[in-house]
Amino acid sequence: MYRQIAEDLRRRIVSGEMAEGALLPTEAALCELWGTSRGPVRNALAQLRREGLIDTGQGRQGSVISRQARQPIDVYLPFTRWAEVHGRQPGAHTVSLSLRRAGEDCAAQLDVPPEAMVVELVRLRLLDGEPTMLERTRFREDVGRLLFDADLEAGSITAYLATRGLNFDQVEVEIDAIGADPLDADLLGIDEASPVLRLRRRSSDADGRAFEYSDDRYRSDTVRFTVNAAGGSNGERGIRPTAGASHQER
Predict the structure, then answer these.
(1) Are strands 117-127 and 195-204 parallel, antiparallel or unpaired?
(2) What is the pTM of this model?
(3) CATH code at 57?
(4) Which segments carry the region annotation Disordered (predicted)?
(5) What's the mean per-residue pLDDT of the chain?
(6) What CA–CA distances, in Å, run from 40 to 6, 26, 34?
(7) Domain boundary among 17, 36, 64
(8) How far is CA 243 from CA 179, 183, 214, 246, in A?
């Protein structure tokens, strides 16, 4: 039931029937409309919040958020699916696909020797035809070789790998802001050294074996990242200072 409720609200938001800033129906109204209890309604709203379509809070009626694309980082949503959820047209332009040595940094992320071969894919990702993100992804060799038979501009690599029996089980994400390098600037259509949002992602399979490490760089004017957090959490997820950050006593 909650999927039906979420799909109906998503359709109304994406079509513009519910404009930016519009208040959502109350939980009570949705319960009455769908003839259900608050559980499915709350699950539907939580799903839309994770997708970055609505903003909700304790004791506050939900509302439709900005059409600027928002990327939740507490749940993994592949770029293609993320774009579709927001009613945008995803696209891709393959810059290069090559076999290369892992090197020290990549080897540490993929748990392979530095001299091991990996497959590197560089793609420019588009939203409605506009450059949005430049991804540099390195795959364990046995996984990456599958991509040489794939149409890398026709759809989601995540979906393609799933058809080959490889599913994402755990995804570790780290985000920071850096200056655009020459390749970023050229392909994203921005000035060199202008700020980009960098999302580094390490993906593992069901056996806990890392198979993908990606460095994705987003134009800062096209996307924002969101996280939904519960108070009192003391786990690994969270915000931490960089190595050069100073400590201020309070």
Answers:
(1) unpaired
(2) 0.64
(3) 1.10.10.10
(4) 228-250
(5) 83
(6) 9, 13, 10
(7) 64
(8) 17, 26, 21, 9
